[in-house]
Specification:
With about 325 residues, this protein is of the alpha+beta class. The chain folds into two domains: about 55-205, Nuclear Transport Factor 2, Chain: A (Roll), CATH 3.10.450; about 205-335, Nuclear Transport Factor 2, Chain: A (Roll). The chain is about 20% helix and about 30% strand. The protein contains five helices and twelve strands. It has a six-stranded mixed sheet, with helices on one face. Strands 8-7-12-11-10-9 form a six-stranded mixed sheet, with helices on one face. Strand 11 and strand 12 form a beta hairpin.
């Protein structure tokens, strides 16, 4: 990604002007020995500063965001290793029955290729918009937020919302989770890019039978049944749900069981009211359960929320400790606050 910058000129033209007046007659000096001009030696370019290995999640994220803005597909790879995974979903693509349209990139070579393609799309004049969040949070959100905090927690993540509409990317959101060495463990990206080539349709992959899979099955069932009591079983007092609504550019944060209960109560009412007694309109074109990354990547839609995506981060006990949601709600829908 490149920020729109105004480049300084590479050189300044200097114009020297003399004063007018009556010219004086002067005697030309006796020519001396002919001097051979020295061949100018071009200056040696300063070596590019190496990337300092990250010593915190925030340091790794700062490198990522800087290199993203500079379209540097080499230095950005300092944040990945050969086990890192990036999953990309373009919600502008038409659905295919019983298939999932998600592109998955595993390892440094594939991920670097993904960034090279993205940077080519963005070019040198992309206007990057990172909309502000409210309520004291900043976009992007980085946990842990301190540069000196060396811990890598189960909740360590980055949540970013951006767009580059002059390049056809009207909406985009990323969630990053991190692992030892301050490398990206799993990254989910959802874009709305109507002009892009859609990913090949693939069959859903059945996840391994783990405590995270069991918790997810409870969550998905409770969501379908709109059962707030059942869905709260998957959360803790330390859980945080963050929501960005593209409609109106509204951000909200829900911490702990009481706030999460209020949020789901409002969401389920909005879905039910939009259905107006008709057939349940909720569909889930992408459900990617990856317990090996403590994560679920979900794309869903309803009459109340024509576009929605969630990235769930689970702890090892199978509880949802972070959930980042980006929706495009129907105008007039009650916000999930």
């Amino acid at each position: 990604m490149k920020f729109l910058l105004t480049a300084a000129p590479s050189a300044l033209a200097v114009i020297l002007s003399g004063c007018g007046g009556t010219p004086k007659t002067t005697v030309a000096p006796t020519p001396g020995p002919t001097e051979v001009p020295e061949t100018p030696v071009p200056p040696t370019p300063a070596p590019e500063a190496p990337v300092v290995p990250a010593t915190s999640v925030k340091m790794a994220w700062d490198n990522h965001f800087t290199q993203f803005g500079a379209s540097n597909d080499v230095k950005i790879m300092e944040d990945y290793d050969d086990l890192s995974v990036v999953a990309v979903y373009n919600d502008a693509c038409p659905l295919v029955a019983d298939k999932q349209l998600v592109a998955t990139y595993t390892g440094k070579a594939e991920i670097q290729g993904m960034f090279q393609a993205l940077f080519t799309t963005l070019g040198n004049d992309a206007v990057l918009v990172v909309p502000p969040f409210t309520g004291g949070d900043e976009n992007p959100i980085c946990e842990p937020a301190a540069l000196t905090d060396v811990t890598i927690l189960e909740s360590s993540n980055v949540f970013l919302v951006w767009s580059a509409t002059n390049k056809g990317i009207t909406h985009a959101t990323d969630t990053f989770t991190w692992k030892a060495g301050y490398k990206v463990k799993y990254q989910t990206i959802v874009v709305t890019e109507a002009g892009a080539t859609c990913s090949p349709a693939v069959d859903p992959v059945a996840p391994a039978d783990t405590v995270i899979t069991t918790s997810w099955n409870n969550h998905f069932g409770a969501f379908g049944a709109k059962d707030v009591t059942q869905i709260l079983v998957d959360y803790t007092a330390e859980s945080i749900i963050r929501i960005w609504d593209n409609t109106g550019s509204v951000y909200s944060k829900h911490t702990g069981l009481a706030e999460i209960e209020t949020m789901f109560t409002a969401l389920f009412k909005a879905i039910t009211d939009a259905d107006a007694g008709g057939t349940d309109s909720v569909k889930a074109p992408l459900v990617s359960v990856t317990p090996q990354y403590n994560s679920v990547f979900l794309v869903w839609e309803s009459l109340s929320h024509p576009k929605a995506t969630d990235t769930f981060i689970f702890n090892d006990a199978g509880k949802i400790i972070r959930q980042n949601i980006v929706v495009t709600s129907k105008v007039g829908t009650v916000a999930m606050v």
